[in-house]
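FAQ: What does the model actually see?

It sees only this:
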Amino acid sequence: MRALRTLAVACLAAGALTACSSSGSGGGSTEAKGGSSASASAEGAGAGKGGTKLAPKEALLASAVVMEKAGSAKLSLEGVDVKGSIDYVWKDPGSFLMNTTEEGQEVKVLFADGQMYVGATPDMAAAAKGRKWMVIDASDSSDEAASITATMQAMNPGVQLAAAAPTATLVGTETVAGQSTTHYRSEIKAEDLVAKMKIEGALKDQVLTEIKKDGATVVTELWINGKGELVQQSVIDPSADAGGKPATVTYGGLGTVKVTPAPGPDEVFKLGDLLQQ
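And it is asked to produce this:
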């Protein structure tokens, strides 16, 4: 079960990109698409109203508002031995559909209606009489509920940007994915990330515990365009080989992704169903 949770949070911003980039033996590398031209001058700060420049904290907070309004995006994930896409809707009712190829094997994970589903391999689907999704019922385990909540909310770019804003610093300006962007760096504490999530009580404590399994803090890199849209994000892996480059998530199709519905009862099975055969 822990292996399934690890897979499900493979793209968790507070450590998931780290997990993806360290899944191989080395640090690996990915390049910002479109090339780059760094400049550490104040001219790289985000644009505010009337053409004024925003300080890093204000630029990230403004971007958080833009991304919250967008509500959805198509994410491209690339790391060592991991490459894939995510259809993510963070506005209620949200959904998270991840399709990746890891070490040559296709992996599919879906979060919808408070449930986690893992795509069945051909052998599993055959054993499950053609049913294609294995459901992980959050009601069976508080750990599973925390994992699902952590993934759905910690990947929310509005949450990430708001948590990163207080410690954000300006790196420069770069062209990423064909867009002119401002590059920021921030060190986010797990407590600050969870504080921005819309959860309370015992669940908040469980989510914090889940996120801290990947470390108490994480250094994140953020690239924001002139419209205040988050274009790309990466997380530095402290365990990667020296000189290794982190995995990246690139955002596209803001506001255009539709909610992925949960599979119907005739499409799902539980692991216990197979064990009883």
